[in-house]
Amino acid sequence: MRRREFITLLGGAAAWLSPARAQEPRRVIGFLSSTSSDAIPELLPAFVQGLKDTGFIEGNNINIEWRWAEGQYNRLPSLAGELVSRGVAVIVAWGTPATHAAQNATRTVPIVAITNDPVRAVSL
Fold this sequence. Notes:
With 124 residues, the protein is an alpha/beta fold. The protein contains 6 helices and 4 strands; from the N terminus they run ααβαβαβαβα. The chain has a single domain, classed as 3-Layer(aba) Sandwich (Rossmann fold).
């Protein structure tokens, strides 16, 4: 390997590993629930820890947008619309009503349905 090729290779590697490259934009995860956060207190830390275990760290490389309908199902469509307009990468829908609201709000954003019967929840 010639000196010029080595310097080019070294410079390319340094640029690839630079802090600027590490500053990729954070992805946003939308979380939609028909309940309140108080109704599922054990889920939230487990959800955040599960993401962390797979390399997605809130405040570091992801942000989570939490939306709670607090038992008012009529709020779900507008909350789902907020998440879609926010440009979330995925919507995590807690329960069948939230899943339906997410499905009605978008056909392009992936939806993860957390429900007792996911097959029934995703069929409209």
